[in-house]
Design goal:
Layout lengths: L14 H15 L11 H8 L3 H13 L3 E4 L3 E4 L10 H4 L13 E2 L10 H15 L1 H5 L7 H11 L11 E4 L2 H12 L5 E5 L5 H8 L3 E5 L1 E2 L2 E2 L1 H11 L3 E4 L13 H14 L2 E5 L13 H4 L4 E6 L11 E4 L2 H15 L4 H12 L2 H23 L4 E4 L5 E5 L6 H10 L2 E2 L1 E2 L14 E5 L6 H17 L9
Parallel strand pairs: 3-15, 5-6, 5-9, 9-10, 10-11
Antiparallel strand pairs: 1-2, 4-12, 7-8, 11-12, 13-14, 14-17, 16-17
Helix pairs in contact: 1-3, 2-3, 5-14, 7-14, 8-13, 10-11, 15-17
Length: 468
Amino acid sequence: MTNWLPDLSSGAGPLYQRLADSIESDIDKGVIDAGAKLPPQRDLAYDIGTTVGTVGRAYQLLRERGLVSGEVGRGTYVLAQGDSPKPDLESTGQGTRFIDAPTGKLRFDSTAAPDVGQGAIIAETLARTAQEHPHDISSYTRDFPERWYEAGSRWLARNAFRPSPDSIVPTLGTHAAVMAAIAALTMPGDYVVFEHLTYSQISRSAGLIGRRTALVSADDEGVDPDDFERVCAQKHPKMMFVMPTAKNPTLVTLSAERRQAIARIAREYNVVLIEDDLYGELTDDPTPLLAEYAPERTIVAGGLSKSVAAGVRSGWLSCPPAYRHRIRVAHKMMTGGLPFLLAEVGTRLIMSGQAGEIRQRCIAEIQARIAIVRETLAGFEVKAKDNVPFVWLTLPDPWLSGTFKNACLAQGVLIDDEDEFKAGRSEQVFHGVRFGVSQPRQSRDVAGGVAVIRRLLDEGRAGYDSFS
């Protein structure tokens, strides 16, 4: 490809789009053969007199069209017709979990609400809903009753934050809520900011719809405002996804001062903030929500999965009025629509007060299980909150995160290594693992699993071997 240059003399739209169109045209004409390597971004940027970022956006657009495959460290290659592009590791990260979990293993890799007998309550609510709304269940949901908005308003309320029902969008879970907001308010090629460690399935999902990941540094107090400002100045992101309270996986809670700083920077650089409060709603943390500092640009997302029942798939977000219609439409387009049965059941649980009662029972069960963890792992560097169903364990030398995960797997316990939570290709190493305590059926199962972890920590790497 040393003698090839794109023709940018025609076409419409921004330069990155014209560049992508020109490359696509040359691929179609056979000027660029299947398997050919496109010029390095820096070289092409110099040749056509533009920035590396512009070329990067063009290459990303080509990946979205299924025309090229980006391989980190090797370059960008033209795909033969019918080839499937490989994942863009830089923008989507890599998961480390089994698609189908092995049978007979203790599930310490989930943080869904514990089983506290809520099944009987939900069954009764399901039956009553089916009896009273047979026609609504048999059809598509076209009209949302006001009670669905009121339920979301009540559930998302925390501390002084009291969202209006007019700000609520009912969704098929919190993940769908966040993705609907990203899809509605950003365009392919736009940057979304994530911490190096976070709920990385959002960054991976965003990568699947063409959004790019920008990583921001964090410490034991959460997002570093100075680094957030640097990212904003250099990459001009449209959004940031953040979990200010009890962040997954490290349990860090942002101070009020940092929330104020993030709100100020977001306002200065016109960045929309997505505040995931899914674990925050389990805590009694009094820190004002980020939405209280920047209400005009903050979207708050939450649901029932961690505190009532994950299988109900009830979620809501509160957003500035100007965003509401677009997000609701995007949610329908991405999910196919909100099932009446699930939305109505979640609403009834909240409006009746049963969701709040179940949440308190879940919290009590989580507290008992976290107490087991604290006692069993005494002496090791463990971060835990009494009301939150997971633990962040910093591993002692010489353990590595992935190696420790494999050692636990060999002993019948499924946990998550740090790579599961990396939003992109990060040079940072944390030497930590996360494990949840809410999915085992009984507390004695939790005690047995934590005992396995303790034994491995005590034995060190000499207690684990693998063969290949």
